[in-house]
Specification:
Two copies of one chain form a homodimer.
Chain A: H1 2-5, H2 13-16, E1 35-38, E2 44-45, E3 51-60, E4 77-82, E5 88-89, H3 90-94, E6 102-108, H4 112-117, E7 121-133, E8 139-147, E9 151-159, E10 170-176, H5 181-191, E11 194-195, E12 198-199, E13 210-215, H6 226-235, H7 263-271, E14 274-282, H8 286-289, H9 301-310, E15 325-329, H10 346-352, E16 356-358, H11 361-366, E17 373-376, H12 385-389, H13 415-429, E18 435-441, H14 443-449, H15 453-476, E19 483-488, E20 495-502, H16 503-508, H17 512-516, E21 519-521, E22 561-567, E23 573-575, E24 588-589, E25 600-601, E26 610-612, E27 630-635, E28 644-647, H18 648-659
Parallel strand pairs in A: 2-9, 10-18, 10-19, 13-28, 14-15, 14-18, 15-17, 16-17
Antiparallel strand pairs in A: 1-3, 3-7, 4-5, 4-8, 6-7, 8-9, 11-12, 13-27, 19-27, 20-21, 20-22, 23-26, 24-25
Helix pairs in contact in A: 5-15, 6-18, 13-15, 14-15
GO molecular function, one term (chains A, B): metal ion binding
Organism (chains A, B): Lithohypha guttulata
Family (chains A, B): Belongs to the alkaline phosphatase family.
Chain lengths: ~675, ~675
């Protein structure tokens, strides 16, 4: 400390006190001191947005932060005041009774050495929670937790001055999970014709009038997962890996963490508008889940599905009666079995609540537009575009049928079919109040994880095709100018294309070093061969795909010259740079049979290829998320708001502002 | 062919005829048929922009395209017509005399098998060139080459309807060579404080009001180099790897390829405005070179330097008398030696032309603002920010002094110092006519190539600092609102950050697989430690750097927890994820001593690290460029033009439009 107090030009002095022991492992995210406030310092709020407050006082019993006393101070106090006004106790500020004191313990590892030695640090905690409060007046607030004889933790909160005027009737947010600018560039090259450096057609995304970048980092780590990042997009609050629309506290329960209201909840509560949730993932997965679930553990899939239908029931919260549309995979949380909530039949639970339930694309297309509709089309994640359209035999996997039987889910809709049907239902059911739709291309991410670049990029192309179809549909029904469209991602993977591969030459070389010489860089990358038909092969083969006119997908999935592509973090794997015709890749395996945390090259994943040893921890069997800012494309009444570079949480405030979701006064009880 | 002619829904049929044998190796880029026109089909032009036309007729003598005759048709004809008007011979259209017929041969390899077997294909060529022509009226033109008894090649050209009104007095284009959105994200995290997910400061780039993406692919390959991509940005014409502001023809000479006029040439010719060229590379490198050089081979460095001073002298072209400012490295093309053009002393050549010549930062800072100024500050590329500012001993490299002696170039300016001085000179010399300045952070690319992420990211931060200083300077002298600022890149590298590394843990493990377990992903990425001072280390050490207030560079270059970062294409190398204190990395070496095209891990590059075997051809000792679209940030009178997604050549048309560089009528002779 002494070093820095004399320096006027010191950078980062303010942080020093709280980060003396710079650590990647943290006792509790967003709580460097022994008193914790959630929402923490620097939190932003939409005026009138419901949230919970969690306070914790920590007494570390061992490790680098060890204190001399055995129990944390339970007599802490908590005040709130607007900038420049006198702070008052939170109970008085919010007109609440004092919540009860809770106590618990938790342990954590200070670093990898401690984890390897299995020497955790024990922390004893005293805490309280204030439930369902809101701040209505824009401005700065100071929340102060005072504990342990005068120690204090201060949280500076900002209620943003967001106009209350509604500018869009409808909002659609498309999320390409894990989608980066690099992937969009590669997908464009894979599917769009270029003549002498000029594209003859471009992506729907390329044609959006306004471009932005958003920063995806989490509250307490710079790499996010999809739970945390979806929560930021939907609530305006960054949180912690695995957390769905809550701040993660240290208590043992996954269901008592402090909640923040989501845009779906706000939109329903304020306007009674329609809500649609569409994903190609299992529907309890993080990106759809964060719209209605509030838990620190995204893996509580059964509870997530219950929250789609009933919202939050363990605490007073907004009155949630289910979305108009819920389409995706994940039947295992619906048919009665050990993975559905309390073993119940959620198809029946949804039917009991008035839902029409459809389990295949044929039924989806003929379903009424007037009912609330649940569409669950497969066990687990839905089939990929490449398998639904080109390598169709891969759909014949037993026990994927959404009814929970032994059958295969062969009649699955794609993202476009689901999204267009969702739009029809949302419009029919909400002609005046408008709708909010989240449509997720989930498997851009899932296929990047397993290094299946071809499948990832075609999922991205399906998203683009869905956007094109959505714009055409909205235009045809006269809703385009009423609808704010946003296309973004929740995080990236470190992917790029660096050249081409002569796969024939590669296959014929012996030895890994020789095989690498099949790669062409710079001028030898040549032109994309995915758009060139192969005159010697029959129409309809994977070397000569035929679509209807104007649809931009690759013409040839199995050209001799493929993309030399890859990610910057990977497990041990082999690469032959050809499309995997037998279904999604499995790059690494536990071949020793001894440990599920020690993965090696899966030889049969790319028999003719060569080995690239991993850089990831050996417990990783797949790639991981990355840091990069992700693009935001927008079109609609508020499109200009979405240009430039901003934080992921800003997407929420821009969307909420466009929909006029600020509340400057408390709602009538 | 037959398959497709019956299909009404066929995608890409139009290309089929010209790409029957889909090939990554090409006989000649942009010429799939046996008759070639440059500029080729799909070329765009600024009204009044000078260009050359090259025609070629090919007679392949062997290989897959073999023809039955021994010589190409020398009696080809060439016509041009505006859309809907009668085509006339080019000589009549441009009022030129018929150029002489030229003939030559060249060989190429059809694929890797042919290259391995050393069986080239021979092509005999007949050609002509039309020099220094222009199209003044916006619209579509059809150029037709007819040869060999009625075969024809058609080029559809578009002269864009660019307004002639000048909207900006000055234009500054900053080029972060190889800079991607991913790198900007990483640099921000390395240098800017974040509290609970909210940055307390951001990059200058983050604050630019308008964001776009540009596509960097080349004319005839989807991966570009910096020559080709710089040419696209400066001329509105994509070309071929290694080509500087020409289309590459097949003739043996590097100096007869068809030229296109650059924005620097246009700006000087039309307004007599000031031109500044600043780079941290050796100044003959591609990005600065493409502003005045016209050659198919960027490696002709001596000639490039001559072209800075005299422009093009081997053909009639624009009258070029040198830029107002030329600052960078590359003394080896200036002091008299075998690498300077004709062995001449180019310091003296520039002095003879009225230039003030400065060779270090001290002289630069005190130089007059009224003279044309040449500043050459080192042999080869200039020193990196990290070495100039933190690891200063690395400047002590003999024979780097710009005078060609044995000394070290220890008094080098950075990009900021060069750019600010350039602005002062440009303003002083061009108070009425304004200026065009290109300022390049060249070593973002150069350090990414050698996997030296720390140096690459600090070069990027220096660029950002330069942008901030430029905006402040322009504001202080009242020129900010007159100046269009563009910040972009010429291509990317497939870089990203995926987590953190406990470098202490890594160093203490034995065995590569154990070392990989030092990597933390997702929640274990934690927070950036580059911004956290180390209380146990002295101020001024590389763990506690102190700058003046408001300057955003890392506080600690050697934290225990570093970024887990990497690229998606790499040679064999080792990673220890720590800053390289001895200067730029050397990831791979020719350790066998037998071949300069067989590179292996350089052990001493990262002694405590682990091996990652390469995926690149074994002849590659460093990483390569990638496909990704790159960002364009803009601010100024025409900023709105630069939003959305577009081709790299569009940057030229947007800049030229903003400066009003269209000529609708021929200039007076």
């Amino acid at each position: 400390m002494k070093f820095f107090s004399t320096l006027s030009s010191c950078v980062a002095c303010g942080l020093l006190a709280s980060q003396v022991a710079a650590q990647t492992f943290q006792r509790l995210g967003a709580c460097p001191k022994l008193g914790c406030i959630f929402p923490p310092d620097q939190a932003d709020f939409l005026p009138g947005q419901w949230f919970d407050i969690r306070l914790e006082v920590h007494a570390p019993q061992n490790g680098s932060e060890r204190v001399s006393y055995a129990q944390p101070d339970g007599n802490f106090t908590f005040t709130i005041g607007r900038d420049g006004q006198r702070a008052v106790p939170a109970t008085q500020f919010f007109n609440l009774t004092e919540p009860r004191l809770e106590t618990w313990n938790f342990t954590w590892y200070e670093d990898l050495f401690a984890r390897a030695a299995r020497t955790p640090s024990l922390v004893r905690v005293a805490g309280k929670a204030y439930r369902k409060v809101a701040l209505y007046e824009p401005g700065n607030y100071v929340a102060t937790l005072t504990y342990q004889n005068g120690s204090s933790t201060v949280a500076n909160w900002t209620v943003r001055d967001i106009p209350t005027q509604r500018r869009a009737k409808n909002t659609i947010i498309f999320i390409g999970d894990g989608m980066t600018t690099n992937m969009i560039t590669a997908a464009r090259l894979m599917a769009h014709q270029m003549i002498n450096g000029k594209y003859q057609t471009t992506m729907a995304m390329d044609q959006m009038p306004v471009l932005g970048h958003q920063m995806t980092h989490s509250l307490d780590s710079f790499i996010t997962d999809s739970a945390n990042s979806a929560s930021a997009l939907y609530t305006g609050h960054k949180s912690t890996v695995n957390a769905l629309s809550v701040y993660r506290d240290s208590s043992p329960s996954n269901f008592d963490d402090p909640k923040v209201e989501t845009i779906a909840e706000l939109f329903r509560e304020i306007y009674g508008g329609g809500v649609g949730i569409v994903s190609t993932a299992f529907i309890a997965d993080a990106t759809p889940a964060a719209l209605t679930a509030h838990t620190s553990q995204r893996g509580r899939y059964g509870e997530v599905v219950d929250s789609f239908l009933r919202g939050i029931t363990n605490y007073t919260w907004v009155n949630w009666t289910g979305p108009d549309v819920l389409f995706g995979g994940g039947a295992e949380q619906f048919y009665p079995n050990s993975r559905s909530f309390q073993g119940r039949d959620y198809y029946q639970e949804f039917r009991n609540a008035g839902y029409n339930v459809v389990l295949n694309n044929t039924s989806l297309q003929t379903a009424s537009n007037s009912s609330k509709t649940l569409g669950i089309f497969s066990v687990s994640n839905m089939a990929k575009w490449l398998d639904r359209n080109i390598y169709k035999n891969n759909l014949n996997i037993s026990r994927t049928a959404p009814n929970g039987g032994n059958g295969s889910a062969t009649d699955q809709p794609g993202l476009k079919e689901m999204t267009l049907k969702a739009l029809q239902i949302l419009r029919a059911r909400n002609p005046q109040n408008g709708f909010f739709l989240m449509s997720e291309a989930a498997s851009v991410d899932k296929m990047m994880h397993v290094l299946d670049y071809d499948r990832a990029l075609t999922e991205l192309l399906e998203l683009d095709d869905t956007i094109k179809a959505t714009i055409n549909y909205l235009r045809s029904v006269g809703e385009l100018n009423n609808t704010q469209i946003i296309i973004t991602a929740d995080h990236g993977h470190g992917f790029d294309v660096m050249g081409s591969v002569d796969t024939r030459y590669l296959a014929q070389q012996t030895g890994d070093r020789n095989k690498r010489n099949a790669i062409g860089i710079y001028e030898e990358s040549g032109l994309s061969q995915y758009v060139v038909p192969n005159a010697s092969m029959p129409i309809g083969s994977d070397q000569n795909v035929v679509y209807s006119q104007g649809v931009n997908f690759p013409t040839n999935f199995d050209p001799r010259y493929t993309f030399y592509q890859g990610v910057a973090a990977f497990p041990d794997h082999r690469e032959d740079y050809t499309v995997n015709k037998r279904g999604p890749r499995v790059p690494a395996l536990n071949i020793t049979g001894f440990s599920s945390t020690d993965y090696y090259v899966n030889y049969i994943d790319a028999v003719t290829g060569f080995v690239i040893n991993g850089s990831l921890p050996v417990a990783a069997d797949q790639g991981v998320h990355s840091l990069t800012d992700v693009p935001v494309f927008s079109q609609g009444p508020c499109q200009a708001d979405f240009g430039g570079v901003y934080n992921s949480i800003d997407v929420f405030y821009k969307m909420a502002g466009c929909l006029g979701l600020s509340r400057r006064t408390p709602p009538r009880p």
